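note to self: the first set is below, dont mix up w the second
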Amino acid sequence: MGVLYNQVADQLQALIQQGVYRDGDRLPGVRVLSRQFSVSISTILQAHQTLEGRGYLDARERSGYFVRLPALDAPEPVMQKHRAKPVPVTAREMALDLCADEQKRMVPLATAIPHPDYLPLRQIQQSTLWAARRGLETLDYSFPGKESFRRQIAQRMATLGVPVSPDDVLATNGAQEAIILALRAVTQPGDIVAVETPSFPGILQALEVVGLQVIEIPTHPSDGLSLEGLQLALDKWPLKACVVVTNHSNPMGARMPDERKQQLVSMLAAAGVPLIEDDIYGDLYHTGDRPKPAKAFDRTDNVIYCSSFSKTISAGLRLGWMLPGRYMAPARQHKYFANLATSSISQLAVAHFLEQGSYDRYLRSARQHYRESCERMRAAITRSFPEGTAVSRPQGGFVLWVQLPDGISGTGVFQKARAENINVSPGLMFSSTNKYDNCLRLYSANPWTERIEQAVARLGALAHAERDSRG
């Protein structure tokens, strides 16, 4: 029996690799496959489980089995010692250009901002109107944050295994400000900070604003930051902080397993290096349960937790928060000097929205949208891009990391696409050391339309042309 179900699994895998069944396609039912292969239903089910273990199938409750292509091959997990050296951070003007381009009605495949169709607009409008009627409470300063908002955050953090009080929460203008405040609280200009690579450009920009140097640590597409690479950096350089997106990192979509989060927290605590955790995508997991933040494993108050509602409720509200822990005093001071306070009406509106219990109901549908959007985009990339293209399989969020075959410049594809009003993010944006020229990041959370499908197909054609032009 074991030989038989493996044979069926091998045949189905061959059909997937040949493109008969494409990424995101639903396989025929078990009875249909049983007749097709002239085997029992139990043999088909064992073949499905085998393919699921190999990473070619995804089981969905009451829906069946769906094809998924293997994830992007892992990068080299250990840093080469002779290359592990600090470099100054220079935030690229390219990032600002991309944001401006998105306002020009280009095909939006670059900036990771939720599409309005996937946001709880009606509920937020109602909560904002409620907040606007609060009179002086809406119009006054709210440093270090509205009590109702900080109380709601404390309640949500408790469900993640992070028991805090409202007084432990500092409201910020998005996660970007939270990260900047955290960096300013624990570093001085010229200090060295470890980050993932590839890394979210906003983190690199935050490091530049604070005047820091960076050590880039390789990131595994599934397991996240290389702990081995981090240990090499800790042994060689006087790191003052480490910034990590532990859940569904941008751009790879990696989620660190809990045991590795524990190791990360312990390793940095032993070295006396604060961990700045960005958990902005934590609520947007595609399957299973909400992953814990690294902060849940913090026993020495060495983790500064940062997050926001920009990727879930609204980017325009500019509402985030941080748990500075023992660094609360310097974080509060830098916040006060920078802009005094975060918008009162945004805090009151979001607190009201959370109190109504609407947030979790909304998230259930949003997560399904983003998962399906990622699968659809991956399938389109597989159809259109040159053979040898690798695509990440994010475990949450809504961005895809595309690694083009050797000899194809992602920057060249980006430039040609931009000339045709298609906006994508070139790989060079995600490092301070000019790496990832053969990569692109694609935003996948748009409602799927013919315009989007044609744009992805055109990107594939441009990648083919870029390869051909280089001989």
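second set (the one i keep forgetting abt)
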Amino acid sequence: MGKTDQKRPNNPAMAEADQEGEAVDNAFDLWLRRGLHQLYDTVAKEPIPEDLLRMIEEDRNSEQE
């Protein structure tokens, strides 16, 4: 029986600790997501340079030949 197959003990303190840990994880995820959006949204919204688009198209055409 693997670790994932084992059942957790029916201990209310353990369940409460799991919920608290999950809440901390959710709060961290929210903080990280907001921070990354704040840092990188403007960069992600920039248009792709024409030279890069041309290079991608040339590569795509060379693969088809």
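remember for set 2: The chain is about 75% helix and 0% strand.
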